[in-house]
Write a structure and sequence with these properties.
With 81 residues, the protein is mostly helical. Helices cover 77% and strands 0% of the residues. It is built from 3 helices and no strands. The chain is elongated.
């Protein structure tokens, strides 16, 4: 196996892993909470009609991406020794 190609692939995967994590953090993270605190909504009626299927799918995709990244790191380590 060519080490330059493995290193290049690993660099790209780790970069996009970091970008995905940052995206998901800012998607429902501090920015969303800060906007929610600024709005003064006096309605107390809450409808619980939200579906969490999209959240579950995105968590599974992110988890699979992280597992693939770490498995590739492991095989790169084993291949070098």
């Amino acid at each position: 196996m060519n080490y330059d190609i493995c290193y290049f692939f690993l660099t790209i995967v780790l970069y996009y892993e970091r970008e995905l994590i940052n995206y998901f953090i800012t998607l429902k993270g501090v920015r969303g909470m800060a906007k929610a605190e600024l709005k003064k909504n006096n309605k107390t009626e809450i409808e619980d009609s939200s579906s969490l299927k999209g959240t579950l799918a995105s968590v599974f995709l992110l988890g699979a991406f992280i597992v693939v990244t770490w498995v590739s790191v492991y095989y790169l380590f084993v291949d070098r020794f």
